[in-house]
Design brief:
Elements (H helix, E strand, L loop, with lengths): L2 H16 L16 E11 L5 E8 L5 E8 L12 E12 L10 H7 L2 H9 L16 E11 L9 E13 L2 E11 L5 H7 L22 E9 L5 E9 L1 H10 L4 H7 L8 E9 L2 E10 L2 E12 L3 E6 L11 E7 L5 E8 L12 E10 L5 E6 L2 E8 L5 E6 L9 E8 L2 E10 L9 E16 L18 H4 L7
Antiparallel strand pairs: 1-2, 1-22, 2-3, 3-4, 4-5, 5-6, 6-7, 7-8, 8-9, 9-10, 10-11, 11-12, 12-13, 13-14, 14-15, 15-16, 16-17, 17-18, 18-19, 19-20, 20-21, 21-22
Helix pairs in contact: 2-3, 3-4
């Protein structure tokens, strides 16, 4: 499960479980009532309506999750010799008062910031924070995750590989150290192969950087060291990734142009090491991000989030400098229930002066709520991206995702319940042929069984809900979202 999906599902499950208000997870928003069901099995269908895969979920004990994937072979007939079966996901936990910290993984974060690196992550089925699909669970700490990645769930992609993540977390008073070791098997796509898939033109001298024969993704270790204040807020975060790429970045990042490195090596120079520090000043939080070119200290970026009566303003620079100290800032407007209603991006025009006619204030995202405070629509500029509807008891019933000007959703998600807990979720996607009237066709059906454990969020290792543009919480904005 991707990071964004995990955050989105946490919000949506609160809506499912309690019919709660809004999409915000701040103290005045969503109720965090737990669900009492867990996935039991799932079916997957192709664009022609044929069943192509089945998934079986097992929970042999309170610390273990096993998910098995069965796929039909090329003959499209089940129970024949060309069928395949893979252990799609295994999660092993230990009892602990807190989960892993799960701060951003620089290895993948550095790739998503590169136009060619983002292509590589998409081609390989990775999110910007890696392949982790195991859920975060109250009273559990993830020790090991192993999984199987397949292009089955990503149309047009034909690949597969396995991964293993070993996790450790140690606390020392006001400091915690998290170590994640990643191992990959079968992921051997090279940088040159990714570049061949990317059409990118630039006037930067790209010849200063060679195209290494290294795979785009290699085994690596991410170490996060965090210090906290008395209120358990992060004071400093040291993020360090170590792999065979570390030496490559050291060799290039001091001599070559950083943009050339980003394009030719699929990742930014700061994808090996970053440090972050936080200062809490009344209604403002300041964050400093120290970036490194390889292992050498490079630029320092400062940003501030300030809470006002009806909005949170996020801008470059310090709190004293103010939001208009740079050329842009973002405003997150919220209502009396502390639900974010819009993100507005402000910038000055070509004259470089604030308060003149060419200043621009553009609403990037808008969030609408019904009279009961439930999220009803998420808007793009001039259009609706997501629409939500609910049963009479307030539980989430349907999510429609729109693309373009068609009134027929591109994707529809339907939810049914058993004794207040999710019982079945159906994902329908639109056929692309306009002559077929944009018919919606079932692509995923996942059934849930009653569970004695109260899950803090809905667990699904495959996307069931649209995973973008959920309204942020005020709490997230005021801590710069350091936790993934």
């Amino acid at each position: 499960m991707t990071t964004t999906l995990r955050n989105s599902l946490a919000c949506l499950v609160a809506l499912m479980a309690a019919g709660c208000g809004g999409g915000s997870s701040s103290s005045g928003g969503a109720v965090t009532e737990a669900t009492s069901s867990a996935p039991s099995r799932a079916w997957f269908y192709d664009a022609d309506g044929a069943q192509v895969a089945r998934m079986q979920f097992q929970y042999p004990d309170e610390l273990t999750i096993n998910v098995q994937l069965h796929s039909v072979g090329p003959d499209m007939a089940w129970d024949t010799g060309d069928d395949t079966s893979h252990p799609y996901l295994q999660c092993q936990y230990m009892s602990a008062p807190s989960p892993l910290l799960r701060y951003p993984d620089l290895y993948f974060l550095g790739m998503i910031g590169s136009p060619t690196g983002a292509t590589g992550l998409a081609v390989l089925g990775l999110s910007n924070n890696g392949p982790m699909k195991c859920p975060v669970r109250n009273g559990r700490r993830l020790q090991q995750e192993s999984g199987f990645v397949t292009g089955l769930f990503m149309p047009g992609l034909d690949f597969s590989y396995s991964y293993l993540i070993n996790a450790e977390l140690e606390h020392f008073g006001g400091t915690a150290t998290e170590v994640l070791d990643y191992e990959f098997d079968g992921l051997d796509t090279t940088v040159a192969e990714i570049l061949a898939l990317s059409e990118f033109t630039s006037d930067i001298d790209l010849t200063t950087v060679d195209e290494p024969d290294l795979p785009a993704i290699v085994d690596h270790t991410q170490t996060n060291t965090v210090s906290f204040d008395a209120e358990q807020r992060p004071l400093s975060i040291d993020l360090a990734a170590d792999s065979s790429w570390t030496a490559v970045l050291d060799a290039y990042c001091m001599d070559a142009h950083p943009v050339a490195v980003s394009i030719k090596l699929l990742r930014g120079c700061s994808s090996a090491h970053q440090t972050r520090s936080y200062r809490y000043l009344g209604d403002s939080v300041e964050q400093d991000v120290q970036r490194y070119n390889g292992s050498n200290s490079a630029n320092l970026y400062s940003g501030t989030a300030t809470r006002l009566a009806d909005r949170v303003i996020v801008h470059p620079g310090t709190a004293d400098a103010g939001s208009e100290s740079g050329r842009y800032y973002d405003s997150y407007l919220f209502n009396e229930s502390e639900q974010v209603t819009a993100k507005v991006q402000s910038s000055y025009g070509v004259d470089g002066i604030w308060g003149t006619e060419d200043d621009q204030h553009e609403t990037i995202d808008s969030y609408h709520y019904d009279r009961n405070g439930r999220l009803s629509e998420v808007g793009d500029p001039g259009s609706i991206a997501l629409r939500y509807s609910y049963y009479n008891n307030g539980k989430l019933k349907q999510v429609d995702q729109f693309s373009g000007e068609s009134e027929v959703p591109w994707e529809r998600t339907l939810v049914s319940y058993r004794q207040g807990a999710p019982a079945k979720i159906t994902v329908q996607r639109r056929k692309g042929d306009a002559n077929e009237g944009y018919e919606l066709q079932t692509r995923i059906v996942m059934e849930f069984a009653p569970s004695e454990e109260n899950w803090p969020e809905l667990f699904s290792p495959v996307p069931l809900f649209p995973e973008f543009r959920m309204p942020p919480s005020i709490d997230d904005l005021m801590r710069f979202q350091p936790i993934r």
